[in-house]
Amino acid sequence: MAISNVAFITFLALKNTPLAYLTAYSYERLNPLHQVAGYTTVTYALLHGILVSVSFIQLDSKSYLLEAPQLHAMTAVSAFFVLQVFALLVKRIRYEVFYISHILMYMVIIINVGFHRPLLSTRSVMVTGFAGGLWGLDRLLRAGRILWYAYDNSAKITPLHHGGTRIVLQRSPSRAVAGTHCFLWIPKIRVFETHPFTIIRATPLSLDMVVAAHDGFTNDLHSYAVKHPGAILRASIDGPYGQLPNFSKVVDKVILVAGGSGATFTFGVALDMIKWLGDSAKPTIDFIWTVKEEGNHTSFLLHLRDNIDFSNRVSVLV
């Protein structure tokens, strides 16, 4: 069950998941299921390791536990345990540390489970090979997309009041629409990191994002923008990801509710709807936005709202 679940959680973790086309659910909407399946897999792996070890100890076959296949199994189970601890304790505090450990522990698990049951007759190595192949293919697709959009592309970064940074890229994917998101790569800021941000506006010749400065990459990006306003940096993107329904065909009124910096998503949705509705009388849009008057992470969006033409179609309540 643990080995089967490894393939399942790998499938759910893919950014380029086939389920996005079959069910209209992008990877981020499948993430809660990935987490539940992950917790279940760790439980299976720990129970398997503990019960098998106890059985061999009771049979006075402790030396069997020191053989290479069993040592690989213990390494994989230990990696499962480390992965679980980081997911529960580190993820909310230092996401980047959690993410790196997640990838490293996954690689340790796949390799050591393969060496634990290397015979094709057991089929375990086939399942782990399939899971590792899925993950590797997804990484190759993402890397290839970043390389493609890195060609003749750059990002103009502009600091906004109250801790925000506006990013305008010269190249935009054909499927990019406001409200979806892309993984942004700016090697000048962090060469080995990509981070997801919501698209505010997309045209065939440009793509706009607005990033709130918190810590890590976003804080470094804003600091650089403050020191070098209007700077042009080499950049690329991976995406877009996420799907939005065509509200104009199914509803008469749309109510968008956002809290704090979550308005970057609903701004994009409202702008994209206005773009495609044209002169149509329906649907109308009510935009309800809850913010704290203090705090840089949301107040810069008030500045953004005041500088966006929503037209008379949108009523905004803050």
Description:
- With 318 residues, the chain is α+β, with helices and mostly antiparallel strands.
- The protein has 3 domains: 2-147, no CATH class; 152-241, Translation factors (Elongation Factor Tu (Ef-tu), domain 3, Beta Barrel); 247-317, no CATH class.
- It is built from 9 helices and 10 strands.
- Strands 6-1-2-5-4-3-7 form a 7-stranded antiparallel beta sheet, with helices on both faces. Strands 8-9-10 form a 3-stranded parallel beta sheet, with helices on one face.
- α1 (2-13) packs antiparallel against α3 (27-58) and α4 packs antiparallel against α5 (95-116).
- It is elongated and about 80 Å long.
- The protein starts with a helix and ends with a strand.
